[in-house]
Amino acid sequence: xxxKKYIEAGKxxxxxxxxxxxxxxxxxxxxxxxxxVERYIRDAGAKxxxxxxxxxxxxxxxxxxxxxxxxxxxKGDLVKLDLGAHIDGHISDTAVTVEVGTNKWEELIxxxxxxxxxxxxxxxxxxxxxxxxxxxxxxxxxxxxRPIKNLTGHGLDVYDxxxxxxxxxxxxxxxxxxxxxxxxxxxxxATNGRGYVRNGPGxxxxxxxxxxxxxxxxxxxxxxxxxxxxAARWCEKYENYEGILKKGSFxxxxxxxxILQERKKAMVAQTEHTILLTSDQVIVTTR
Length: 287
Prior knowledge:
alpha+beta; 2 domains; 5-stranded antiparallel β-sheet
């Protein structure tokens, strides 16, 4: 584990998150926020580990805007800003929820944030991920909300955003444990709905499913994006890029991430940090 690179990626991820949080205002376009935050990450000396996600209201994850997107933030929107930075594949993954112009959902946001805080306090070598899930669920339930049970935190590895173990948002009975040498992200999702998400339409985020014997332009695209998710708008330099992405998805070369939506179209809040666990330290890289 290259702790130095993980910590630097975390620092940039934190700064980009705080910068993006201030950009989200009534009347501002999704596209402008995504582009500015990703530019911030690049200017700081890292690369985006995945496209900036701007998932609003009942959307929990996996929406990133395209050029010409006419979506603008509206008063009362509950915006999940989820972003990541990487340095030579060493990833940070972090998220915050912003309510635009109102404070109706303060407690829902707080439920997610407190669940993450309590989960981090519990981390130690050998702790079961199900114990972390129990703490998350109990905290969110205390506020009168539900965790989203089919979304999880996840392990991280070099150029691998979802590596190894999953960290549930409830006690799923898993015997998997957190051990020294691990990097991972914990991300409690809280909702006033049923506590489950379903797949919606595509959210303009892709990842390579096939990584060998690729023909052009997919070979060039893979050289650039490798095994990390990428945005449709990052492919604009390729002629007929929309057709390329559509064909790649049809052939199974690419996977097009669906927008994840709360089943009852209820509101969702998310908070996330990246953590490194050593034999004697719990390092929150994005705090």
